[in-house]
Description:
By secondary structure, this protein is mostly helical. 84% of the residues lie in helices and 0% in strands. The protein has a single domain (2-99), classed as Orthogonal Bundle (Helix Hairpins). The longest helix is centred in the middle third of the chain and has 32 residues, at 60-91. The termini are far apart.
Amino acid sequence: MISEIIISFFLLSGSFFVLIAAIGVVRLPDLMMKMHASTKAGTLGAGLVLVSVGIAFDEISVLTRVIATIIFLLLTAPVAAHLIGRAAYYVGMDFWEGTIVDELSDEKTKNADSTDSNVKMNRKASES
Length: 128
């Protein structure tokens, strides 16, 4: 009886966070905010649902798969979101008009300048 309550708590909590992630993806204004919602809340929700599965199936093989899947989610989701966000930023994604801070603007101009100088040096080398 108590295990069913614990399983229900984790399952409902995980489902709630997955729902919040889905609402965030639909309602938030720009890509960075949508990725933040899907990565943070989605990973937490999936992890809580997996914990409930691990408790429900009281077997060591299921528990090891649950732990491995949670570790995989925690390691890959933030890295993938970071790389997608940086790629979208450098492609020229538009920010929401309420965005105040752009911490990568200096790095973007510096990289653009170094890329231009590298292209010029490569052209001079190929002409010689």
